[in-house]
Design a protein that fits this description.
binds manganese (II) ion, binds nicotinamide-adenine-dinucleotide, magnesium ion binding, 10-stranded mixed sheet, Isopropylmalate Dehydrogenase, globular, alpha/beta, binds 3-isopropylmalic acid, 3-isopropylmalate dehydrogenase activity, 12 strands, NAD, Isopropylmalate_DH, single chain, amino-acid biosynthesis
Length: 362
Amino acid sequence: MHAEIVVLPGDGIGPEVTHAAVQVLRAVARRHGHAFAFTQCLIGGAAIDATGQALPEDTLQRCREADAVLLGAVGGPKWSDPKAPVRPEQGLLAIRKALGLYANLRPVKPHPAAMGASPIKPHLLTGVDLVVVRELTGGVYFGQKTRTGSGASDLCEYTIEEIERVVRRACHLARTRRGHVVSVDKANVLETSRLWREVATRVAGSEFPDVTLEHQLVDSMAMHLLARPRDYDVIVTENMFGDILTDEASMLAGSLGLLPSASLGEGRVGLYEPIHGSAPDIAGRGIANPYAAILSAALLLRHSLGLEDEAGAIELAVSHALDAGTFTADLAAGDTAVGTRAATEAVLEHLLDTCYVAELRD
Ligand code: NAD
Ligand code: IPM
Ligand code: MN
């Protein structure tokens, strides 16, 4: 298969982890006879430095023409002046919106070998397998922002259609899993949440009678997610709640550096990125965990290119690397930790092994 993949490294550890993911994709292409063409473009702080814009028109155009987009992370102290006219994060929000990527899938499945890195007791983590479907192009992130002499406001808005489509996506996903959706809101306070609950109930009830839907308020959800994570299958929620709950959920897996994501819409282009940020505190030191970015590349193969076997091979290779104790510093203390490069090489090694075994089997 031939595929055009746009790579947006971004800032901080973004270039370090996307480099790792591209190496893995190249290995997959070589091994399975695919031709992946990679085009690197600017976004975020790097784009602001070069062009003055967080999402240059050229980048967006190339993304529109691509089969898939792989992104690292954007942002950092250099561009964080509250008075700055443009911020790196605006580039990320703009690309999600422009490509219509309203559903952000964030799977969380703690790996037994990494459970030691989680602050949660192992017996609570065994068997956890959930996906958060985060609404990605609406809510308070995109509402009108106002600053006056005496205050500021961010408007939170949702339309019925925006809620319907993301709930549908979550219900479809639940059908391929354990058939259970929990919709998270703050309906006891927010009008947008009351609408969310009403629409979710109607969509699930009328279109997905085989899927069970429950509602949970976001504050208690933050607690239940850690107290009984095994009970969740698909969690669907609005933009900001999903952002916060998934960083929390990364502690089930053991590190932010382990969680990938897929941003999807009705269009053909998907965007794939680790859920973590640019990690300015460790950037440039070659110690970032590349697994979340590599697992995002696996999601890219699955969702945008339909290469399920290749996606599975990458996931298995990461799993083997973890089994072998190949941990970056976020997962292992002190001397035993390896750098980004060694972790990536471990994945490449296991990937080639797996492919070889698969070949022998055929
Ligand atoms: P962050 O996710 O960058 O970092 C939080 C903590 O997790 C840090 O201690 C960091 O070192 C660690 N961490 C994150 N990813 C890691 C990895 N792969 N390996 C090892 N450790 C890792 O969040 P933050 O510090 O709140 O934000 C820093 C910047 O990143 C901000 O400018 C923010 O806007 C931006 N950000 C961007 C994205 C994105 O581009 N998708 C996501 C989140 C934050
Ligand atoms: C994420 C990030 C972004 C978000 C920021 C950088 C705009 O935190 O992808 O989770 O909040 O969506
Ligand atoms: Mn986030």
